[in-house]
Predict the structure.
Amino acid sequence: MTPGPAVQAVVSAVRALGSYDVVSLTVPSAPGWDRARPGQLVVLPADPARGSVLPAVHWLAEVVSDPVHGTTVQLVVAMDAHQVGEEVRLLGPLGRGFPLPSRPVSALVVAHERSAAPVRWLVSLLRERGCAVHVLLSAGDPDRHLDPGGLRRQAASVVLTRPEDLPTELSARLDDPGTDPALVLAAGPRDLVRVVASLSAPRGRVVRVTALDPDTGPVCGTGVCGCCDVVVDDAAGARRVRPCLEGPVLPGEWLLSARSEARRAAR
Ligand code: FES
């Protein structure tokens, strides 16, 4: 889907959250924002006049609309990246977000560092559908866990781990009858979400993962650069997938293809 034109947004609030800032932006109301969901992206296009030569791609952390304040979009960004009153151009919401189950199930949400930006919103929507939600957060540095205190007030359980311990912790959650998730949703670097898929799919869990990570290399988020491409080779045949257009949330099984790895390495 080709993104529409960028809109002008105004930074209405900035608050610190651990190693990051949560930025609220007031945007012109549009039907797309009413349908926005966790797992979608927004892009702040490059603006050389202001010193940004690359687009900035962010996870949508939340969208709130009300008749008094209009539409407010929240993003999690690097500290001191934006100030209140600043005007920015913004494209979004982009892509396909996480699917939400139509009936109550047990769900496990796994996320790494800033990719956890949409997790609080996702947990809240899953809970509205009657789901029991468990959260597993990974971070290389404890300061980079995103809002574990806030999540503990929402989720049935929250476990913090390091990336190297994630497989062990994830296996424990998958095999724990007290968690027993039917649905596993993961956001983070491609290697990490592939691990999540490789442990969850063979156990019969439905797995949906983000197949693009703005924090592990420059990406455009709009289908132009090709940096997010992955070659999927499964029962449906080999095909090149561009996650920022076809995802960024994709079936976890799609990332398990060995041929996809080989082709990426050969590029
Ligand atoms: S991020 Fe540039 S094509 Fe997908």
